[in-house]
Amino acid sequence: MAAPIAVAIDAPDIETAARWASAVAPHVSTLKVGLELYLRYGPEVIATMRGASRVSLFLDLKLHDIPATVAGAARAVARLKPGILTVHAAGGTDMIRAAVEAAPDTRIAAVTVLTSLDEQALEAVGMRGPASDAARRLAALSVAAGARALVCSPHEVASLRAEVGPDITMITPGVRPAGSAKGDQARVATPEEALAAGADLLVIGRPITGAADPGAAAASIAAALRRAEATTA
Ligand SMILES: O=c1ccn([C@@H]2O[C@H](COP(=O)(O)O)[C@@H](O)[C@H]2O)c(=O)[nH]1
């Protein structure tokens, strides 16, 4: 079975994206397309990803606007049938509900607190207190508004799970195999730690796509996850 990994295909062009997608697809459950590729290529890049494999498609657009505008945007991309579409939880209840209603066949995932923000950066944007408090508050609001998935750092998965229950898909970026560069990520953990904390889907980009052989990097992380699961089973 493919590992519960969404590879962030943050490529500068569609040829590179297609190459990465076909290299990693045999090893992972999901390919994630974000703003860089979608803003440049639109639906063409979704078709390219689907051509490369039969894995699930995660469209990470992090919509954040007034409810009517987000509803229109969600309706526009719902035609592409992504498995998951992200919105920012900070857009509020009405905005999240608008996305959920506009894309009924897509799992709306609410991004709680970006994994690139540390406590100092959070305070600078007016969020005092630990990231986990803000994440928990935004998670509860998002699920009440109809979101069926949450995006948070591996550090917050367990407390968010306790808040929202077992039926919500917990998605964690900020995943770094031991020894990988953190880059611009602040709240990070290893794949094994994220899984042990209760994550359902690990988002991993540069540790895979920046490797000399992205297919081998994906296979190696997938194998490490299988080993971790076997020892806890
Ligand atoms: O809080 C968030 C939400 C989304 N992301 C996205 O995940 C990947 C992470 O890529 P890495 O190369 O593994 O850092 C990227 O596409 C982000 O847009 C996130 O990092 N944090």
UniProtKB/TrEMBL annotation:
Q: What domain of life? A: Bacteria
PROSITE patterns cross-referenced by the UniProt entry: OMPDECASE (PS00156)
Detail which positions bind substrate: 10, 32, 60-69, 115, 176, 185, 205-206
Could you tell me the Gene Ontology terms of the biological process aspect for this record? Answer: 'de novo' pyrimidine nucleobase biosynthetic process; 'de novo' UMP biosynthetic process
Ranges for domain Orotidine 5'-phosphate decarboxylase come to 4-221
Query: What pathway, per the record?
Result: Pyrimidine metabolism; UMP biosynthesis via de novo pathway; UMP from orotate: step 2/2
| Xref: InterPro entries | Aldolase_TIM, OMPdecase, OMPdecase_AS, OMPdecase_bac, OMPdeCOase_dom, RibuloseP-bd_barrel
Entry's Gene Ontology cellular component terms: cytosol
Task: From the UniProt record, list the reaction(s) this protein catalyses.
Answer: orotidine 5'-phosphate + H(+) = UMP + CO2
Q: Which Pfam families match?
A: OMPdecase
Active site: which residues?
A: D60 (for ompdecase activity), K62 (for ompdecase activity), K62 (proton donor), D65 (for ompdecase activity)
Q: Could you say which EC number(s) this protein's record lists? A: 4.1.1.23
UniProt GO MF annotations: orotidine-5'-phosphate decarboxylase activity
SUPFAM superfamilies on file: Ribulose-phoshate binding barrel
Per the record's keyword annotation, is Lyase included, yes or no? yes
Q: Tell me the NCBIfam families matching this sequence.
A: PRK00230.1, pyrF
Q: What does this protein do?
A: Catalyzes the decarboxylation of orotidine 5'-monophosphate (OMP) to uridine 5'-monophosphate (UMP).
Q: Which family does it belong to?
A: Belongs to the OMP decarboxylase family. Type 1 subfamily.
User: Which proteins does it associate with, and in what oligomeric form?
Assistant: Homodimer.
Report the protein name in the record: Orotidine 5'-phosphate decarboxylase
Phylogenetic lineage: Bacteria, Bacillati, Actinomycetota, Actinomycetes, Streptosporangiales
| Gene giving rise to this polypeptide | pyrF
